[in-house]
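Late entry, evening session. Most of the bench is empty. Finally got around to the prediction I had been postponing all week. Sequence below, unchanged from the version circulated by S.P.
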Amino acid sequence: MKRTLPPLNALRAFEAAGRLGSFKEAAAELHVTHGAVSQHVRALEEWLGASLFERHNRRVALSPAAKAYLAEIGPLFEQLSQATARYGFPETVSRTLSVNAPATFTLRWLVPRLATFRAAHPDVDVKVETSNESLESLREIYDVVVRGGPDTFYGYSMRPFLSEERVPVCSPALLQRLPLRTPDDLRQHTLLHTSSLPRVWPDWLASARIPALRPAAALTFDHFYLTLQAAIDGIGIAMGPTALVADDLAAGRLVAPFAGPRLPSRSYCTYVPDGKSADELVALFRAWLEREGARS
């Protein structure tokens, strides 16, 4: 006989929120966002055709019917947990999260922080692919795509998580050889360029009111991470995005010789297909990125 079952992820969110009396506490227990719990509860209410919660400021209260429903399904979750433990099965099944992000961002910001995500969620396997292609040009559907923004793409939800500006950066050893007291001293140095970002240096020089400055030399690389590595190696001066060079500045591998100007730059954003926006794992990773971005 065919069973009629509600969406199980939605049922799990309802059970946690009803037992704890809080969407926020349920989100913390389930390692998802408050919004993900709300979406799951709303989906269950639509499936059942009934309202389950009464909202009271920051707390939620079960409707009489929902209270009776919870009293019956709550023990079932406990039985499921005990049965899983009794027969030695792992309580969680490993899932893979597919992420596509620009190469330099992945190398210099995401990878150094992924260990903290893995430590908190060892059951989640993260598969990262790098690409600088536009969202519309990607041939695969990923759980999370990281690109600049904010932009709007049909079929995707967007949320910014990391802002940055661009400033000149170089190695401390280079400054010992050729000091930089004012932006005008850049005429004695080698400026490092990236072919995909031809306007970065001209825009900064215009902001510094020396648009006609001619440096001693210029080097151009096809990938931005090569440009930054050349700066670390003391070859010249690069325009460094503050988010991607923060660790190097903190460690003393790079220095920012000038207080300003600081060139505005686009934020890093997550773009998630509409069909995956309510996925618990996607919401979990998205929330983690936003916390790390706030710390940065």
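Two things to note before I forget:
The mean pLDDT is 88.
Residues 165-264 form a domain with the D-Maltodextrin-Binding Protein; domain 2 fold (CATH 3.40.190.10).
Will write this up properly tomorrow.
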